[in-house]
Design brief:
Blueprint: E1 2-8, H1 13-29, E2 31-37, H2 42-48, E3 54-57, E4 62-64, H3 69-78
Parallel strand pairs: 1-2
Antiparallel strand pairs: 1-3, 3-4
Length: 81
């Protein structure tokens, strides 16, 4: 099982691509994803607006922007529960 936070904004094509990657790996890694729309919170919007999508993992690491499948798989392996 892998838990992560996924910061996104509607209409962001990079966010849509990241979500497709996550959906494709959902069963294999038993993902638990907390989706957070940055547009709903001014503080989060200011913090992440130039970095979305942002995937935060329990070990404190994060991936953002153009997320590569290889990098995502490495983070999953490092953050398995």
């Amino acid at each position: 099982m892998v838990r992560l936070r996924y910061y996104y904004k509607a209409g962001c094509w990079l966010c849509e691509r990241a979500e497709e990657l996550l959906n494709g790996l959902m069963e294999k890694y038993r993902l638990i994803v907390e989706k957070i729309d940055i547009a709903a919170n001014d503080t989060l919007y200011e913090l992440y607006r130039f970095d979305i999508p942002v995937l935060e993992f329990r070990d404190g690491t994060a991936l953002h922007g153009r997320i590569k499948k290889k990098d995502l798989l490495e983070r999953f392996e490092a953050n398995k529960e």
